[in-house]
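Module 6 notes. Inverse folding takes a fixed backbone as the condition and produces residue identities as the prediction. Think of it as a translation problem where the source language is geometry and the target language is the twenty amino acids. Below is one complete input and output pair. Work through it position by position during the lab.
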């Protein structure tokens, strides 16, 4: 199934929350949805779930508009945890599973399976508010998974988790994607997004600024070329084609270079000054790209 977000707009008075946001999440894909606070991520997810209505635009699943029955097949993990704090974990998960159409016995089996998978089986008899933040988030993920959803929509699922919990949640999301489920999640942990996701969408001020694989996005940004030419005079790289900035740090020169730059010409110029002990090209990280996009 493909989840399609098509030209969504949403305003709150004079504030534009979404301005023609468009992207899709494909079957078996982990899609990282990143942006600053207030960029429009949560608004988009709430529109997908039908919690909010868009002013214009559509959300479709396999080309069909999403109605209430289809929304019951979506697993949702909100940023503001939506659990009943005084209710016991097992009863709560069983209740939520039955709301999504599972029988009592099916719900019981699903609760056992997911609490074991997420490492919280021993806490099923405990009230949610007695759990640590990390375990509450595991319960919230179990609530999103317990009805075997066809789509997963997760808003900041890794927030506040310890490294072990991050690994468990990452493994589960990869497993669901491997089953063909489209998975979209937002996160401020860009190194994690870069490691996990097949594609990434960067949103800023309600508009999608970039969508693509991490490699595609990285190849479109400025790279850094580190050159260690100890005999090179200051300014040796000034004015070279494709070089936008030049920084000198001791005997090393760090060049910011445009995509497609002729690095062999730069190497030739460096060698004309004497020996070159290091010549390495570093593509921008997702964090670098994010800073570049949101500051544009």
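Target side of the pair, the amino acids:
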């Amino acid at each position: 199934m493909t989840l399609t977000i098509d030209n969504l707009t949403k305003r709150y008075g004079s504030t534009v929350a979404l301005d023609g946001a468009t992207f899709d999440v494909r079957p078996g894909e982990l899609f990282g949805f990143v942006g600053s606070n207030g960029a429009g991520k949560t608004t988009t997810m709430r529109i997908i779930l039908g919690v909010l209505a868009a002013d214009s635009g559509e959300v479709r699943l396999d080309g069909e508009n999403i109605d209430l029955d289809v929304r019951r097949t979506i697993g949702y993990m909100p940023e503001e945890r939506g659990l009943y704090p005084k209710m016991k974990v097992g009863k709560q998960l069983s209740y939520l599973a039955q709301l999504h159409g599972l029988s009592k016995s099916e719900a019981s089996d699903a609760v056992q399976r997911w609490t074991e998978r997420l490492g919280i089986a021993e806490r099923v008899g405990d009230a949610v508010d007695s759990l640590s933040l990390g375990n509450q988030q595991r319960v919230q993920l179990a609530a999103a998974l317990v009805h075997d959803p066809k789509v997963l929509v997760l808003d900041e699922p890794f927030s506040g988790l310890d490294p072990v919990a991050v690994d468990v949640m990452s493994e589960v999301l990869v497993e669901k994607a491997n089953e063909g489920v489209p998975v979209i999640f937002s996160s401020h942990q860009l190194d994690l997004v870069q490691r996990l996701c097949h594609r990434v969408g960067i949103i800023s001020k309600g508009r999608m600024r970039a969508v693509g694989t991490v490699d595609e996005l990285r190849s479109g940004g400025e790279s850094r070329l580190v050159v260690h030419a100890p005999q090179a005079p200051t300014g040796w790289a000034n004015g070279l084609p494709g070089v936008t900035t030049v920084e000198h740090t001791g005997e090393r020169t760090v060049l910011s270079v445009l995509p497609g730059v002729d690095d062999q010409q730069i190497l030739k110029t460096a060698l004309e000054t004497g020996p070159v002990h290091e010549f390495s090209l570093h593509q921008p990280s997702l964090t670098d790209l994010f800073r570049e996009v949101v500051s544009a």
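Reference fact for the lab report: The chain has a mean pLDDT of 91.
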